[in-house]
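Our collaborator T.R. sent over the components below with a one-line note: 'Predict the complex.' Nothing else. No constraints on interfaces, no templates requested, no preferences about which chain binds where. So this is a plain run: every listed entity goes in together, and whatever single assembly comes back becomes the starting point for the next discussion.
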Amino acid sequence: MKLFSISKAVHVPKFKEADHFSNIIEVDASKNMVYSLSQQHNMKCTPTVKRGDRVLVNQVIGVGENNSVVPVYSSVSGTVKQIATKVDLMGNKVDVILVENDGLYEKETRDAFDFKTLSFSDLKDRIKDLGLIETQNLSNRKRGMQLSFKENVKNILINAQESGLYGQVDSYLYEKERADFLRGLDLLKTLYPDADITVLSTSDADSVIGFTEMLKSTGVKLISKIPTQFYHDMNLASRDVYGDFAMKDTMVIDAFLLPAVARGVMDNRLTHYQLLLINGGAVETPGIYKVMSGTTLNLVMEKAGVKDPFRIVAGNILSGDAVFATDAPINRGIREILFLNENEVSKEEEMNCIKCGRCADVCPVSLRPYELYSFVTSREFDEFFKNRGGMCVECGRCSYVCPSKLHLLQSFKTAKKVKR
Amino acid sequence: MENRKITVASSPHIKSNLRVNKIMLDVIIALIPVAAAGIYFNGIEGLFLILTTIIGAMVSEVVFKRLLHKKHSLYDLSAVVSGMILGLILPVTTPLWVAALSSVFAIILVKEIFGGLGQNFMNPAVAAKIFAVVSYGNLVVNGGFGSATFMERFLGTAGGNLGESSILAIIVGGSYLAVKGIIRVRVPFTIIAVSLLFSQFVLGDITILAGNSSIYLIAFFIANDYASSAITNDGKWVYALLVALAASVFIGVGENIEGAYYAILLGNVFAPFIDTFFKGKVDMKKEATA
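Returned assembly:
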């Protein structure tokens, strides 16, 4: 049937040549660090320090109210200046801890443990305590969940193809964090001796060579060509790689968190930095930035030489959120920040739907966006959910391809909020 | 902090270059060989006919939108496409005032009354063509092609409706649309294949329908109208099959020379109904995996 559908080839193309960055630009920790107590959406931590307290590196400064909230660590040593309410990147009001950095980086020692002797649930707690936030499926991407390991999985998918549209970050893994990445693979092999481990990388030539070379003696498979170029929800990727019903036996791990897990579990070291891909027309020096947690976006903008951005996008260009305030800390889980010029952002007016059906062709979960859109515009929200509107993974492809430039994704987001 | 101006909007922050007027422009480009062949074989009257329907469609769109106190939407080029197709499916001897009146009917009564672009349940050009044939039967006379052989019909002869003179020109224009990805190849493929088979096995002579250019014209240009055809990909097969069978019966058995256009109207009316059959089909499989 696909033989006769030439227009089925409408996939989300690369908007421009993906840039390659091999060197890493380090952003020094500023004098004043800001730690958000709500790194996960709608989930709050309570501060464990008071104003005037001295904090050390590795010290817990915020603990979660419930089990699914990861602790917040201080990445510098210094004094707590204030605990205040601020607007975060997305415009939500959150509590933050302001720490004045004394530049000494005195460390608090952490209790030693041996992961081989721990039971699985203890190990899960230890991994949660690393404070890592993963963003591999839709609900996690929006909410930010702690990284958790499933018990008894048959397949492990390691996703290294994030941010394929505006630049490649995966070279970082096989060049800079090679040793820790391989140790992470060893850790997975020890924990899940029977599991089938696969690394998913971009089909970019350099990445393929780099990963093939790194993985050649590990027995880990590499997939560098996948049916869709860009996954918003990694559960869909596991469906493509392992087959339709493999989702519940599959664990998807962000490849960029794996070295941090290896360090945390094997050496008991915390990772206090995160990698950001900074790109876009308004950036003078695009590249991979190594940012200490607790750094505000302003500092990164200064370092990268950002001039008058028209829009700032935290996340992928198709599904990332627009940034509301720039003096807020960068949450964990954000991989990519784009500073776009006015002419890079599309601002076309809506027209009537011409019912071409292109949106339905590109939808990864086989919805019919043209129909859902008409339900939303006529405010028939029950019909919207009956037609599986709640399953929308918010990837943004329908809005991307629409020739009438309808705000499809925006209307679906609105409809989902109305129901809640 | 200095006064930085950043804008906030919902994702995606970038959109494809495809626009409605680009699609329509591609359709116009694809229609040019058809129109050129029609004018070449039928004489300069063909050009006047096409110009009349295009201008009539554009003027009626502007006037109607003005009456509704709305901005005109000529820039989407859909009125031009409707007018052009209407001109191509009328006989070259049609009086120009009938052509102009038909284009007013197409735009106002078939398209704008139902909500404008994309909301029409029938193809405006075909509906207007049928309006002209039914209302002014003595003036709109399709003389047919007489005793032209298949090769003559394929390369081009005078007669019939303006756009029907050359099958080759229609296939050239249609291939352009297919290569550009504007139309689904399954629709013309099904329509042409089914009519050829019908012609060969039911009527006994493949050239009866293979030599009828209206089949090719509807297959490539009219059955693919987005708004009035089936949207679902599986529904398109059924829709095309229905149109092809109706056209074959009307032309081959009923010996109605305009049968293909009646078949399109029949298909248009059934298209939303066909779509309802292909709605729930993917649900089970996808939900099990989600």
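Summary for T.R.: DSSP finds 13 helices and 19 strands in chain A.
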